[in-house]
Amino acid sequence: MNKAVLLYTLKRYAHWYTLLCWLLGLSSFAFFVSILLVSRNNVTVDFARCLLFGPLVPILVGYNMVVPQVANSQLRKDGEYLSLLFTRPLSRCSYVITKWASGMLAIVVVTILLTAMTYGILFLVQIVFQQAAPENLLDGYAVVDALCNAIGYSALMILISSIPHPWGRITLMLVIWSAMFASSTMSAISSLADYLALTDVARPLSALAQITVSVFGVSIDSYHIVNSGAFPLSNAVIFVSNVVLYLTLSVFIMSLREFFYAND
Amino acid sequence: MTGGTFAGVTTTSVLSEKETVVPAILVEGVVKSYGFGRFKALDGVNLRVESGDIFALIGPNGAGKTTLMGCMLALLRPNAGRITIFGKPPDHIDVRAVTGFLPERPSFEPWMNSLEFLRFHQMLAGRAGTDTARQEIQESLAAVELEDVAKRRISKFSRGMLQRLGLAQVLVGKPQLCFLDEPTSGLDPPGMDLVREVLLRFRAAGVTVVVNSHHLDEIEKVCTRFAFIRRGKMETQETISSITSKMLIAKWVQGKIPEADLLLKAVSDCGVTLAESNDEHAKILVNARQDAPAIISSLIHNGISIEEIYFDRRGLSDLFKPESDRRARKDLNDETPARI
Predict the structure, then answer these.
(1) Does one domain contain both B177 and B46?
(2) What is the pLDDT of residues B83-97, one digit of tens each?
(3) Interchain pair B75, A3: CB under 8 A
């Protein structure tokens, strides 16, 4: 981990303009989540919970904060001048790990801010309309899931952004999102087939969904891990191995990358 | 131990005695191609830069200078050949700790101000936290005359100011080896003087510098050696003085051709070399322009009638002329002994 890169990356996040943009965006997001929560409908509350602690926030933060700092794309004005950085005594491995850590920190801070804002709005609603906040919004599972999402999605974003060509980045992103969408669809169909006692359909679909998740999954369902009977640790192992795999791949790609600075 | 005094601070080398005897840069048979080998940007390039050299890389556009610099900085990987910097691979952390680099087109973090930017690079170079760290930043800013805009955001900087800041960024790392790509690009005349001054101070401090520039007159003033590269191949590696040596041409008064012995005596009395002589003129190789009055005086004193005397100065720009012109000129200069 490089102290200078970490310090200045965080300093960059804390720039007043970035902060202002993010605060405006976050307050709108928190307002939307609060509307969903005050409806006190189970579906909307679950959806709001998923918005707050699910993959959306890590992806948004990662895409807007981590990617431009690593991609070194001329299209983004704020892209770092990597060719100049890598002439300094800074290893590419150290750079990747530092960026992952700083991305993770940014995601955690944004999630905390968002949760605090949501609770703030709910508190105001409680005072004005005497309507209590849902009790099952923030629990230990939500905290663990949010933390794991920050770790996992930051690694995924680093992997995506380490690819030098913009189209390469877009392709990888599409492949991963498609795989995750396919996996959740397969899981849903498998559950339905299981309910209808169609075991010949349910088992292969479930296996395929598991395999897809084992390759691309960077989030965790802590409730499932704690309460599941069979192989409760398998999801955790998959999560850890995927984070390690993504970081290793990022370091590998960054080590192979050439920086022809005249064309940066 | 290498080192010296620069910007008021004494620099000492982190390299051991053993490491300083090896050349600063050694490039052996480097090949670099693009487009799956379709275009060879570098084709078997060999280069040797000694410690303390102010070395110029010159050549026409697209010759491969930037690619060579990129390979020496380990930003590009050669397809074949070997590069060592102070006897180590160019991507070695120890090498990077003593390397400074000024890119051709500086595009730094626009949200930082000059002070933050220099502090960041000082930290990256591992020089932050020392007693003199703050002073070194101030000195670097002063060296490029940017003290007044130390707290101005980089996004508000002009092209020339960015170039100066880039140079300050090189200085703040206290390098022992610098790669400067077009350091005078976008600079006004005072800015160019400033770069020259910095290079001269580097030379005095024993810092090895590799400069890639098209400002040949500036190179002639500050560099000690140069390499000329064309179409990815190294054509020449010489000292600057060998290519910019000054030739004094003395034309005889019509019909008054001096005797050979007399001419040789007149020239040798001044401690200079007679390069060539014929029925029309003599070419005398002088060490410095200041030698001219003594030579004229000696020629007149020996009774030689001169109609006209002037300097014909070879320069680096000659290297850019078509090969046929240069060969003809080289043949003319290589004709020894002089015809008398």
Answers:
(1) yes
(2) 999 999 998 999 999
(3) no
User: In terms of Cα–Cα distance, which of A21, A3, A12 is closest to A66?
Assistant: A12
Q: What token pair was written down for A251?
A: 């370091």
Based on the domain organization, do B263 and B250 belong to the same domain? yes
Q: Choose among B54, B103, B42: nearest CA to B201.
A: B54
Comparing CB atoms, the residue among B94, B109, B124 nearest residue A4 is B124
CA contacts within 13 A on the Cβ side of B87: 8
The position carrying tokens 């169909």 is A189
Q: Is B330 on the interface with A (CB under 8 A)?
A: no
Instruction: Estimate to the nearest angstrom the gap between the alpha carbon of A53 and the chain centroid.
Output: 10
Q: Which residue is closest to A16 within chain B, CA to CA?
A: B111
- Rounded CA-CA distance B261/B281 in Å is 15
Boundary of a domain, candidates B182, B205, B240: B240
Per-residue CA distances from A215 to A171, A175, A181, A237, B320 (Å): 16, 12, 13, 12, 57
**Within this chain, do residues B220 and B255 fall inside the same structural domain, yes or no?**
no
Q: Does B107 touch chain A (CB under 8 A)?
A: yes
Domain that holds residue B300: 245-334
Which of these, B188, B142, B189, lies nearest to B168 by C-alpha position? B142
Q: Which two tokens stand for residue B283?
A: 């070419």
Angle A44-A238-A220 from CA coordinates, rounded to 5°: 20
Helix (H) or strand (E) holding B307, with range, is: strand B306-313
What is the number of alpha carbons within 13 Å of residue B113 lying toward its C-beta?
A: 11
3-state SS, residue B26: strand
Give the closest of B77, B93, B173 to A258, CB-based: B77
- What are the pLDDT digits (tens) for A169-217? 888 888 887 887 887 787 778 778 877 777 777 778 778 877 877 777 7
Closest CA to A87 of B209, B178, B109: B178
- Give pLDDT tens digits along chain A (264 positions): 888 888 888 887 777 877 888 888 888 988 888 888 877 777 777 788 888 887 788 888 877 766 655 555 444 444 557 888 888 998 999 999 998 998 899 889 888 988 888 888 888 888 887 777 666 677 788 888 888 888 988 898 888 888 877 788 888 888 887 887 887 787 778 778 877 777 777 778 778 877 877 777 777 777 777 776 665 667 778 888 889 999 999 999 989 888 775 544
Extents of the domains making up chain A:
3-162+218-259
Q: What is the CATH number of the domain that holds B182?
A: 3.40.50.300
Q: Strand B306-313 relative to strand B281-286: parallel, antiparallel, unpaired?
A: unpaired
Q: Minimal Cα–Cα distance from B73 to chain A, Å?
A: 6
- B299 and B200, same domain (yes or no): no
Residue B340 covered by a domain = no
Last residue of a domain, one of B240, B272, B291: B240
Same domain, yes or no: B207 and B298: no
Tell me how many domains chain B contains: 2
